[in-house]
Amino acid sequence: MCSVGISVSRFDYRSHSDSPLDFEEFRLFEYALEDAENALKYILNNFNPKKALLIDLSMGGASALI
Predict the structure, then answer these.
(1) Which position has the higher pLDDT, 43 or 55?
(2) Does the CA dihedral 33-6-10-61 come out positive or negative?
(3) What CA–CA distance (Å, rounded) separates 55 from 66?
(4) How far is the CA of 40 from the CAs of 25, 51, 61, 66, in angstroms?
(5) Local confidence band at 45 (pLDDT 50, 70, 90 cut-offs)
(6) With 0-12 CB in 10 A as exposed, 13-18 as middle and 19+ as buried, what is 10?
C-alpha cells in the first residue's frame, strides 16, 4: 500500500505479541475496542487524513465492524 502512496499504521492489541498481559486477559469489548479507537484517534489527531479505513484481521475484525 505504501508503494502506491497510501499511508499505513499497524498495531497489536493488548494481550497480543509483546504485550506484558497474558492472552487469557484479553477482553474484546474492553481492550480491543479501546485499542482500536485509540489507534484511530492517534491517526486522525496527528495526521489529519481526508479519509481513514480500518482493516482488521483475526479477532480484531470484530472491533473494525463495531
Answers:
(1) 43
(2) positive
(3) 12
(4) 23, 11, 15, 13
(5) very high
(6) exposed
Question: Are the CB atoms for 31 and 63 separated by under 8 Å?
Answer: no
Give residue limits of the domains in the chain.
2-65
Could you tell me the CA-to-CA distances from 63 to 32, 41, 42, 66 in Å, in that order? Answer: 6, 15, 17, 5
49/65 Cα distance (integer angstroms): 20
Q: What is the pLDDT of residues 9-41, one digit of tens each?
A: 888 777 766 767 776 776 666 777 888 888 889
Better-predicted residue by pLDDT, 4 or 23: 4
